[in-house]
Amino acid sequence: MVPNTTPLWLFDLDNTLHNASHAIFPAINANMNVFMERVLKEQGLPSDQDAVNALRQRYWRLYGATLLGMVQHHQVLPDDFLREAHHFDDLFDMIRAERGLLNMLKRLPGRKILLTNAPLRYSRDVVRHLGLHRHFDQHISIESMRVHRQLKPKPSRQMLRKLLARERVAAHRCVLVEDTPANLKSAKELGLRTAWVTQYLTGNPHFASTGVRRMLTMHPSYVDVKVRSVRQLTGHLRRLVLRA
């Protein structure tokens, strides 16, 4: 088969296309804590808030998703964890996003895929609320990030290799747009172009404030383009998109 030379954009969702740090991430973390406290208590493990917070952060750092730590070390069912972690009574009121996202997507040449470590129902609702769903050729949520039937969400290089092979796209013609450095690093190791979106990092509960300030002064070698907002991507096309 002839490789596809059309540029392919892989867009993260939370803290890339909208400000999840405003209300959604704190709510998800609170929901996770309730779920994890119950599981840890049932398993006779320390389940006070300090222990739960530390474990949630540890699994996120180790695996890129707290879910994987809970599945691997505590035998929870992924669907149960995702359902409870992303339960909101007023999701649409919690969403904060910039104007101009639709125009930005229209101006980017090539195909777009939403690639998110969030579950399908939640991410679908957010993208539809933002009015962006028609501009993504595919919507890849965490449930479908599997390699040999095992969950392999970002930053999994195995998952990215499988995606590139399925789409018949060379790595250097693919751009990952993300807020999470670890995900960008693994993509760059495979040869993808990378764009780091930074404007929502300061409110991200995964990072201490001092760590964020230090991060914002950096431009790692695995980042091709560093932008505050995804709306600035159109000004960096020469660096991100190779001509055929």
Question: Which key phrases capture this entry?
Answer:
single chain, 244 residues, alpha/beta, Rossmann fold, DNA polymerase, domain 1, 2 domains, six-stranded parallel sheet, two-stranded antiparallel sheet, 11 helices, 43% helix, HAD-like_sf, HAD-SF_hydro_IA, Pyrimidine 5'-nucleotidase, HAD_sf
Radius of gyration: 18 Å
- Label the overall shape: globular
The CATH homologous superfamily of the largest domain is named HAD superfamily/HAD-like
Any low-confidence stretches, pLDDT <50, length ≥5?
Answer: none
Pairing-aware structural class of the strands and helices?
A: alpha/beta
Q: Give, in order, the helices and strands.
A: EHHHHHHEHEEEHEHEHEH
- The tally of structural domains comes to 2
CATH C-level label of the largest domain: Alpha Beta
**What value does the average pLDDT take?**
92
Helical run tally: 11
**What percent of residues adopt helix (DSSP H or I)?**
40-55%
Fill in the CATH topology of the largest domain: Rossmann fold
Reported for the largest beta sheet, the result is: 6 strands, parallel
Number of strands: 8
Distance between the termini: 17 Å
Quote the beta fraction.
5-15%
Spatial strand arrangement across the major sheet? 3-2-1-6-7-8
CATH architecture of the largest domain: 3-Layer(aba) Sandwich
